[in-house]
Amino acid sequence: MGNTSNVPEIFLGEISSQNNAETAVLEIHSHQPGSIQVIVQDKLGKSVLTSNLSVEEGSEALAFDTKELKNGIHHAWIYINDKVFVRQFTLEGKAEPGLMGKFFSMFK
After folding, report:
1. Which of 15, 50, 99, 106 has the most Cβ atoms closer than 10 angstroms to its Cβ?
2. DSSP state for residue 25 in the 8-state scheme
């Protein structure tokens, strides 16, 4: 008989957007260090962002850049330690670049 543990290795929270939808944050708790790959898809299933992140043992908030994503619903496929998780999140409030948006950004 070997040692078996009923303690899950990974706990993932929800993804929340920060900084006027320029950054998304994923809360994670891992019992061991590892690497994470996050693949974000738009509502049509098209891959629009890939991030490779590292996680340490314990709890942390992992941030990834969402500046290039459009407002709306996205699905993040999170690959860690041979497991796959899916989290849905929504980006709102991001100013869409238009002629006026570009004009006003010159004065920031």
Report:
1. 15
2. E
- Give me the domain span that covers residue 85: 10-105
Q: How many domains does the chain have?
A: 1
Q: Find the helix or strand (DSSP H, E) in which 38 lies.
A: strand 34-41
Strand order in the sheet with 23-30: 10-18, 23-30, 58-65
- Does residue 49 fall inside a structural domain? yes
C-alpha distances (whole Å) from 89 to each of 20, 64, 68 are 14, 13, 15
pLDDT in tens, 37-65: 999 999 889 999 999 988 889 999 998 88
List, in sequence order, the alpha helices (H) in the chain: 99-105
Structural domain contains residue 50: yes
